[in-house]
Amino acid sequence: QVQLVESGGGLVQVGGSLRLSCAASGRSFSRYAMGWFRQAPGKEREFAAAISRSGFNTHYADSVKGRFTISRDNAKNTGFLQMNSLKPEDAAVYYCAAVFTVETGTVPFTRWQYDNWGQGTQVTVSS
Predict the structure, then answer these.
(1) What are the distances in angstroms from CA 125 to CA 31, 34, 47, 87, 89?
(2) How far apart are CA 65 and CA 78, in angstroms?
(3) What is the SS3 assignment for 88?
């Protein structure tokens, strides 16, 4: 298991940018694929972006493609989500998640595939 702690959320204007971080501790982070999910009030938790354990493969939800970039630094046990051109509909609690994968290129993108979750960080987008 890994323990995950998100940071970097906050209030931003429409069109602005934020960079979320996910600090991992416990077992070797480099053995885990990582994903970012988000949940707005009254809505289900939805997928935003994911990255393979190697960092070479990524996958994005259509709603964030071209605006968000997921990355990781395995040497620092940290994952990132760079969010640009933020829209009001991006406002949500953002959760970092991780799952052990055998294949280095695997990119899980459903929430049921992940078994390690952070506590979330709030992103608010003002118009």
Answers:
(1) 34, 24, 18, 7, 8
(2) 21
(3) helix
Q: Which helix (H) or strand (E) holds 123?
A: strand 121-126
Residue 52 has what pLDDT? 97
| pLDDT beyond 90 at 95 | yes
Q: What strand order describes the sheet that includes 2-7?
A: 2-7, 18-26, 78-83, 68-73
| Residue 1: predicted pLDDT | 86
Read off the tokens for 112.
């049921």
Three-state DSSP at 10 gives: strand
Q: Where are the alpha helices (DSSP H) in the chain?
A: none
**How many other CB atoms sit within 10 Å of the CB of residue 102?**
7
Question: How many secondary structure helices (H) and strands (E) does the chain include?
Answer: 0, 11
DSSP 53: T
Decide: 92 and 72 in contact? Cβ < 8 Å. Answer: no
Q: What is the pLDDT averaged over residues 68-78?
A: 97
- C-alpha 34: how far from chain center: 7
The tokens describing 90, both together, are 């991006």
